[in-house]
Specification:
With about 120 residues, the chain is α/β, with parallel strands linked by helices. Helix content is about 50%, strand content about 15%. Bound molecules: zinc ion.
Length: about 120
C-alpha cells in the first residue's frame, strides 16, 4: 500500500511537472507570437503616430480651456493676446507687466487666444 501510494504520488508529481513545463512552453510561444504581432503593428502605425503626436503637445486646444483657467497677459497697450504660460515667446517680448488672471477676465480686456500657446482643433 505504502509503495503504491508513493508511486502514485511520484507519478502525480511528474505529471504536474510535465503540465507546468507544457504551460510554460505554451505561454512562451504565445508571448513570442504576440510580441511578433505587436512589432508588426508598431511598424505599420509608426509613420503617422509620432509626427502627429509631436505637432500637438505644446499647444492647448482652445475648446479645453474654461473661463476659470489661469492665463497670462501683458499690460502693454499693443498686446491683444492672452497666454497659457508666462514663458511663451509672445509674452516674453512684453515690456510692461505680466499679469495672471482667469480667461474670463482676460476676455473682458478684449484679449484673444495666443496662437503660440493655443490651437483651434476645428480649424
Ligand atoms: Zn502665447
Amino acid at each position: 500500500m505504502n509503495n503504491q501510494n508513493s508511486l502514485s504520488l511520484a507519478t502525480l508529481r511528474s505529471c504536474i511537472m510535465i503540465a507546468v513545463a507544457v504551460i510554460v512552453l505554451c505561454s512562451m510561444a504565445v508571448s513570442c507570437a504576440s510580441t511578433g504581432e505587436r512589432f508588426d503593428e508598431g511598424e505599420t502605425s509608426t509613420p503617422d503616430s509620432p509626427t502627429f503626436v509631436d505637432k500637438t503637445p505644446k499647444l492647448i486646444d482652445i475648446y479645453t480651456v474654461s473661463d476659470s483657467d489661469t492665463v497670462y497677459i501683458c499690460t502693454g497697450k499693443a498686446s491683444k493676446r492672452f497666454h497659457a504660460s508666462d514663458t511663451c515667446e509672445g509674452i516674453m517680448q512684453c515690456t510692461k507687466k505680466i499679469l495672471s488672471m482667469t480667461r474670463a477676465d482676460a476676455e473682458k480686456r478684449h484679449r484673444t487666444f495666443c496662437h503660440k500657446c493655443y490651437r483651434d482643433s476645428l480649424e
